[in-house]
Write a structure and sequence with these properties.
With 227 residues, the chain is of the alpha/beta class. Helix content is 37%, strand content 16%. It has a 7-stranded mixed β-sheet. Strand 4, helix 5 and strand 5 form a beta-alpha-beta unit. The longest helix has 24 residues. The chain binds S-adenosylmethionine (SAM).
Amino acid sequence: MAFQLAEVVPWGRTFNEYVAMFSLDAADRSRSILGCGDGPASFNAEALQQTVKVVSVDPLYEFSVPQIRKRIADTAPTVAGQLRSNAGDFVWQHFKSVDDLVAARMQAMQIFLGDYVEGTAQGRYVPAQLPDLPFFDATFDLALCSHFLFLYSEQHDTQFHISAVRELCRVASEVRIFPLLELDGTSSRHLPAVTDALSADGRTVTIEPVNYEFQKGGDKMMRVLSG
Ligand SMILES: C[S@@+](CC[C@H](N)C(=O)[O-])C[C@H]1O[C@@H](n2cnc3c(N)ncnc32)[C@H](O)[C@@H]1O
């Protein structure tokens, strides 16, 4: 079935958040990076300013600027309301309040929208979705997946997760995924099976602490290395 814009709640993070979520270091900044499920994050646009080479892939990129802008306007008040109702589930350290967080997200999404048309023309925003990506084997040094895999464990089953991570491993020599929690803050039900399947493939899978925590307990990423 075709991807529906109504299925997406656009909510984009920043370059600095990606740096923290994925422990990106100076060496990583010179690697070719795939951001999978980047949606309306400003990661790609801000990376460009810092000459970091990022291609973002997301089914959201089938849609136009006005369509995405309208979807953001329609959904942001609901997300803000949910955050206010569940504020106790989050760590208010980097962001001091819901208003602070919403302002940062809206700014990130404005930066994304401002870059989207030019970035699409340059091939930096590619409309596609896991578990099938339109890239040759080993196109990228590093694939990052923020707030899609594991987070939506209820919506996507174990087999989807295994196929999706294998696909990321096909197109990149290293894969990092954050967070490892589901939306309700519990550890993803698919984590053991994905770890076992990838290890059985001969890949090295590690769970590593990172310097980022917004969902309480969400301070770890998965790193998968080929072979
Ligand atoms: C919560 S957003 C995260 C956006 C961004 N990564 C960030 O951290 O700010 C989840 C994103 O996953 C995308 N998505 C949904 N299904 C997908 C799929 N099958 N493959 C890749 N991305 C998908 C959505 O369109 C959405 O942009």
